[in-house]
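If you are new to this repository, start here. Below is one unmodified record pulled from the training split, so you can see the exact layout before writing a loader.
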Amino acid sequence: MLAASRVSASTFAFKSRVVPLQNHHRAAKMICNASAPVAQQVFTIVGGGRVGQALADMGPGSDVVVTRGQVVEGPPGPIVVCTRNDDLQAVVDSASPERRSDLVFIQNGMLQPWLDKQGLGENTQVLVYFAVAKKGDKPTDGKTDVNPEGLTAAYGKHAQAVADRLHSGGLSCKVLGKADFTRAMLEKLVWISAYMLLGAKHKATVGQVEAQHKEEVSELIRELIAAGAEELRVTPVGGEVERLNAYARSVAHFPTAVKEFPWRNGWFYGLTLKALAAGKPDPCPLHTAMLKEVGAV
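And here is the target side for that same chain:
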């Protein structure tokens, strides 16, 4: 399921690039921003792309930014992982066992089963509802006409530190308890799974799906929310369709594609396969039919 190869705990490797542990002082990259509040907690940020750079730019000027091929090591406190999902295993393997509880995961998709297998089920997670157009740009908050207070949310021991960092950059972020975060995580998973799939089916942007196929996407959202809530043993609070369609309007220009399948649509398809194997009806028949239509399964 994961593309990242396993590496020893003394190295951090992406795509076969490895830096020995003794070179970690040269490998660590310091990002300075003299105008940032000095009272903020220093982060280690894994990944120097758009989001990683944006987080560093909001910081106190002494974050350690670890890029590809460099050792995952930094000061005490949050280690925010800003990489692709398929690189997560390499990040975990390269972090020393005593620091793994400090890893903060901000990736899209259903991370929980994988985190549980790593013994990291209670690690900090962040649902990111902001966008960075290109590296160096200021992030745009994903506030909507239904949720003008913002939708970004965090859970775990470093949740408040992450929220403080985002607030310093003018972004919203709520700190949630486990049950509320699980519901919010399911909604984000449903949004990206439903909108990317409908967009692939109709060869449309997110905004075109919302404007031209609202009834279809709303029906799919309701189906996936129901199936996911039953699997996760959470009770939906209502308003999911309105919230998710409103978010689509706020990011109408986003392109669509079915990708990172094991982490997104693949989780729902797994519920389908489990039910069918047990002789039960498919809990996601619309989703399954669309996956077949676009050739994803």
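Two things worth knowing about this chain: Confidence is low (pLDDT under 50) at residues 1-38. The two ends are 15 Å apart (CA to CA).
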